[in-house]
What we know:
- The structure is a single chain.
- By secondary structure, this protein is of the alpha+beta class.
- It has 2 domains: about 1-20 and about 185-209; about 25-180, Sandwich (Jelly Rolls), CATH 2.60.120.
- Helices cover about 20% and strands about 35% of the residues.
- Helix 1 runs antiparallel to helix 3 (about 185-209).
Amino acid sequence: xxxxxxxxxxxxxxxxxxxxxxxxxxxxxxxxxxxxxxxxxxxxxxxxxxxxxxxxxxxxxxxxxxxxxxxxxxxxxxxxxxxxxxxxxxxxxxxxxxxxxxxxxxxxxxxxxxxxxxxxxxxxxxxxxxxxxxxxxxxxxxxxxxxxxxxxxxxxxxxxxxxxxxxxxxxxxxxxxxxxxxxxxxxxxxxxxxxxxxxxxxxxxxxxx
Length: 209
C-alpha cells in the first residue's frame, strides 16, 4: 500500500509540474508588426483599416494591441473586429467585436498603444489560420492606425476601406496579438489519472482506519 501510495503521489506531482507553463492564464505574444520600426499615421477620407495576420500558436486569442490615435474632435466609438476574411463584411465572417470609448484613444498629434481584451469571446485559433484585424468608424479619418514605413510583416497585409471596398495598403499596421495556450490532452489526462489515483488512496486509508 505504501509503495502504491508513493507511486501515485509521484504521478500527481509529475502531472502538476507539466501543467503550469501551458495552463497558466498568461497570454503569449504571437504575431506582431511595427513595434520597433518607423511609424506613420497616414490615410485620409477612409472609414476603416485592416491588417491580416497568420496565427502561430494554438490556443485562445485573448488580447490585441494596436497603435491608434484620434485624429478629429468628434467623440464617436471605434469598433475593433476580428474577422475570418475581408471579402465578407456581414456577421457571417465576424468572430469578435469590441467597441472602445473614444476618450481612451490618445488624440492627435500623440497616439499610443491600446490593449483590447478579446478573452471573453473564447476565440480558439490554430497555427496557419489567417484572420483579419479590422477597425471601423462612422466618420472618415476619425481614427488613424499607425502604419509601418514599408511592408515588413510576411504573414499578412494592410488594407484601407475607401469607395465601398477594401484596398491594399503600402505597409503594415502596428499590431500585436497574444494567445493563451491551452493544455495538451495528454497533460490533462495525466493530471486526471494522478488526481483520481490519489483520491482512491485517500479513500482506502480512511476505510482501513
